[in-house]
UniProtKB/TrEMBL annotation:
InterPro entries: RNA_pol_sigma-70-like (IPR039425), RNA_pol_sigma70_r2 (IPR007627), RNA_pol_sigma_r2 (IPR013325). Pfam families: Sigma70_r2. It comes from Lentzea xinjiangensis. Keywords: DNA-binding, Sigma factor, Transcription, Transcription regulation. It comes from the Bacteria. Residues 23-82 form the RNA polymerase sigma-70 region domain. This is Sigma-70 region 2. GO terms for biological process: DNA-templated transcription initiation. One of its GO terms (molecular function) is sigma factor activity.
Length: 116
């Protein structure tokens, strides 16, 4: 029985890796472009893509069972990640870091535009 559980976990791990790689290959650029427009900061946008793929990994049934297109689901999740990051002022360490990262991106953009 132990071997069966181990084999199932290994198979699930491989399937998860294939899913995430495929999502990134097929939709990563579009999600990154969208997140970059929302965040106005490439590093923050990369964090958004990472969190979006993490949420897809956590809920593959929701992703694959959605009525709409996969890309639409991923873009909606990316939008939620950005929105949560902007509104999570005191929402915990994980969101606090993201909120701080977005604030830094905006303040850097503000200071560079005020210089020129």
């Amino acid at each position: 029985m132990w071997k069966t559980k181990t084999m199932c976990r290994a198979r699930d791990t491989v399937a998860d890796e294939v899913l995430i790689r495929r999502l990134f290959e097929d939709h990563g650029r579009a999600v990154l472009t969208y997140a970059t427009r929302l965040c106005e900061d490439r590093a923050a946008a990369e964090d958004v893509v990472q969190e979006t793929l993490l949420r897809a990994w956590r809920r593959p049934g929701e992703l694959l069972g959605s009525k709409g297109a996969v890309r639409g689901w991923l873009l909606a999740v990316a939008h939620s990640v950005v929105t949560e990051g902007r509104t999570a002022g005191g929402g915990g360490a994980r969101h606090g870091f993201f909120h701080e990262h977005l604030s830094l991106g905006r303040s850097n953009a503000d200071s560079s535009s005020s210089r020129g």
